[in-house]
TrEMBL record:
Keyword Aminoacyl-tRNA synthetase: no
Native source species: Nyssa sinensis
The protein's name in its UniProt record: Sulfotransferase
Family listed: Belongs to the sulfotransferase 1 family.
Biased composition regions of type Polar residues, renumbered to the chain: 1-14
Annotated spans, Disordered: 1-21
Amino acid sequence: MEKTTETATVNSQTGEEERMRDEYQKLIQTLPKESNWDGGYLYLYQGCWCPSLSFQGLISFQRHFQVDDTDVILITPPKSGTTWLKALAFAIANRMHYPLSQSPLLTSNSHHLVPFLEFNIYHENPFPNLENIHSPRIFSTHTPYALLPSSIKDSKCKIVYLCRNPLDRLVSYWHFIGKLRPETVEAISLDQLVDMFCRGLTAHGPFWDHVMGYWKASQEMPNKVLYLQYEDMKVEIVSHVKTLADFMGCPFSLDEEKQGMVEEIASFCSFDNLKDLEVNKTGKFHTGKQNNVFFRKGEVGDWANYLNPTMVERMEKLMEEKLEGSGFTFKRGFIYDD
Ligand code: PAP
């Protein structure tokens, strides 16, 4: 690029960045808000409770993201197995570039290799350069279906959605925020968190809108949206690795299958293996957040150790109402499953 053209582009981008920040500041003041666990707010934007941390990034992502037909977008409600799904998708898509013995997953947490669109890529920069990433590009987001940019919905790109039963998800989230809570902010009790959940006040929620939005999309467009559940993956991961590879457009060859590549990726990305990697035991994000906060127990049914019957009944009754007639059910773990 010519120097003058380059300078003009930079100036116009800086101007656009300033204009956006200004617009964002004005917009946020007009939105309904509720206190969040971290002392910040959840803002009600287009029907979604957005944490203040990701709000500006979400707007930039919605406006500026240029999707490619070969992109794969991994989408989850928080604490549903995002770290796991990112590792699997990365290992599957990059197996031609790196054998597992040299995988970047050995030295980087999967969140660094598959960044969030709203939290990382568009967090501060409305015009990130995403052109030099080799195909298939893999991105992730916690954004509900209704808020996705129409370019994603209208393109041929693939969406992989992973959700988890709300009871385990809530317990996982409670532990997670307990570790990240600023000292100046009072700890939130499980009772309070259940109450927030039932009022729809979860980051990127209401939770039921999140799971139902993608459920409906997967029913209408099964070739575009692959809908997965954490509990199914815990029961049988190998067939899920194959399904994921097929769906992402990088199926395993017969030779790879014979060599045991599918099983190798499944076991490489298992909770026990990833949790014990040095990078995930001691590594950190540039913000200081420790990688180990993404690995706790990785089990189904741990909610039974934390939630009392009143909390469970309240959440289950609400979920039954919200999911009624959809044909979708959660797997809650050993206590209620057949
Ligand atoms: P995020 O949405 O903030 O990125 P996410 O990775 O979705 O978090 O959720 C973390 C949960 O996934 C933790 O669950 P727990 O609190 O019930 O233990 C974490 O232990 C679990 N997890 C992380 N990696 C794996 C894995 N490889 N297999 C299974 N579960 C995993």
